[in-house]
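HUMAN: I'm a chemist; might I ask for a sequence paired with its structure tokens?

ASSISTANT:
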Amino acid sequence: MLISVELFVTQIREEWVIYKKYTFDITKETSDPDDLVVEYAQKNIFKENVNQLNFVMHSTSWHYDHNGRITMTYMFYSDFIDVKIMSHKRILLKDLTIAKSSNPKKPRPNKITETNIVAHGIRHIGYLTQTEKKLIFANAIKPANYEILKQIVNNLAGEIG
């Protein structure tokens, strides 16, 4: 069985969600995937001890493809990452859309875009801001963005429409 991780490093800037996607293989790894994500970020993205950065990391989902690969999706959010280190994509907050299926017997939509994945992950982070103590996020999320994230949750993952 092949196993990979897609890691989205995200940040809210004004009316935008900016992000960069990283993908890496963990098929032969035996460590906890959470630890592997932190290790990967430390070695390949930030070039410093990630544990000393202020961030929220959350595993949002996984999916299986017909080529026999399981892909685990992680969101890494921080308002204190130097975004200059990453060439990033951006999505207007108002354009974050969840993936939808019209078939209740098949809730996974036929097409899920990268924008849908980012929207799903940002909703997860938003959900955490509603359910966890604010202090947990104080060093990772600026107060204004904390309020934006709290408001962004309409649906945690997706919907049947």
The longest helix spans residues 114-131. The chain has one domain: 2-160. The chain has a mean pLDDT of 85.
